[in-house]
Amino acid sequence: MENPRININLTQIRENAERVFENCRNNNISLTGVVKVGAGDIKLAQSFINGGIKSLGDSRLDNIRNLRRSGYQGETVLLRLPQLAEVTEVINYADLSLVSEVVTVKALSEAAVKVCKRHGIIVMIDVGDLREGILPDQIKDFFREIVNLPMLDIRGIGTNVGCYAGVLPTISNTEILVELAEELRDYYSLELPLISGGNTATTRLLSDNTLPEGINHLRIGEAILQGTDITNQRIIKDLQQNNFTMTASIIELKDKPSAPTGEVGYDAFGNIPVYEDRGVRKRAILAVGRQDVKLDGLIPVDEGIKVLGASSDHLLVDVTDKKGCLSTGDELEFYLDYGAILRLMTSPYVYKNYIMF
C-alpha cells in the first residue's frame, strides 16, 4: 500500500455523525457539519451525509464548489468570511455565508441581484475570542446598513469561540447572542430564525444542560471527526476517537548518537534545536515531513517510540525502546490531533486510505 498515508475510518465518522445529529435534533438544534479538515474530500463529506447531516460547512469556496460538482444538493455554508473578489462565486455555490463587514454584505447583495438568486447570511458577533465578528455594542448600527438590502435573507446571528484566543464558551458569553437576537427582532421587526452558538466547544454546554435557551444552531466538525473537544480538553462520551491515523515507512534505520557533532546553528525553519545527549540510540527516518504533517500532533501507536523532530521531508523517531525487531521498509503508525489531520489531508503527497466496514 502507498506511503505515507492517512487512514480514514469512514464508518466510525458516520457513526459519530449519526450520534451528534440525533443529539442536536433531540435538543431542537439544527446542525451544520464542518468538513473543512477534509480539504474537499468527497468521501469524507459523504460520511457526514450518510449520518443524516443535511447542511455542510467549509471555509474554502473551492471545496464547496467540489461538493456541488459531485452532485451534493443539500445546504452549503461558507464558514470563512467571504472575500470581496469571490462574491459572485459565493452566490453561485453557497446557500449561506457568515459575514461581519458591511461592504461585503452589500457586495453579496449586488451579486445576488445580478443572477436573481437569494442568499442567506449569518451575522457574526465577537463575544471575546477576537477572531471574526462585530462587537455587541455596534450590532444595531451594522444592521441598519444591511437590513433592507435586496436578495439577501438575514438568517440569524452567530459567534465563534475557542479557535483563535482559546476563549471557552460559557453561559454568559453565549447568552449575549440570545439577548442581541431579541433586541434586533424587536428593533427591526426581523425573524432571525437562527442563533448559531458556536462549534464543538459549545457542545460542553449542551452536555451539561446549560446551553442557553434560544441557541438553535451549531457548526460541528471536530466532535464528529475525532470524538474530542480540544478547547475544553475532553473526550466526548459516546463518540469514537482515533478515526484518523498516519502510516509512514522507514527509509533509514541506524544506531546513531543522540546529540549532533559540530557547531549547531539554525535549522531549515529558523530554529536553534536543542538535543539531550542520551548516548547511542536506534533511530528511524520515515518518509514524511513537516510539509505533510504537524509534528507535535503525532502520537505513536506503538509504545517505546519517541518523535525526535523533522525536516521538510524526513521524520526522525527514536525506536530503541520499541519491542520487537524493525527493518528498513517497515511501517509505523501514529494517532493524530486535529492539526495533524488538517495538514495531512491538505498535502498532495499523502495517500488517502479509506476504511469502511
UniProtKB/TrEMBL annotation:
Cofactor(s) the protein needs: pyridoxal 5'-phosphate
Keyword Nucleus: no
Domain Alanine racemase N-terminal stretches: 8-224
A cellular-component GO term for this protein: cytosol
Keywords for this protein: Isomerase, Pyridoxal phosphate
UniProt-recorded Gene Ontology molecular function terms: alanine racemase activity; pyridoxal phosphate binding
Domain of life: Bacteria
SUPFAM superfamilies to which the protein is assigned, alphabetical: PLP-binding barrel
InterPro entries: Ala_racemase (IPR000821), Ala_racemase_N (IPR001608), PLP-binding_barrel (IPR029066)
Protein name, entry field: Alanine/ornithine racemase family PLP-dependent enzyme
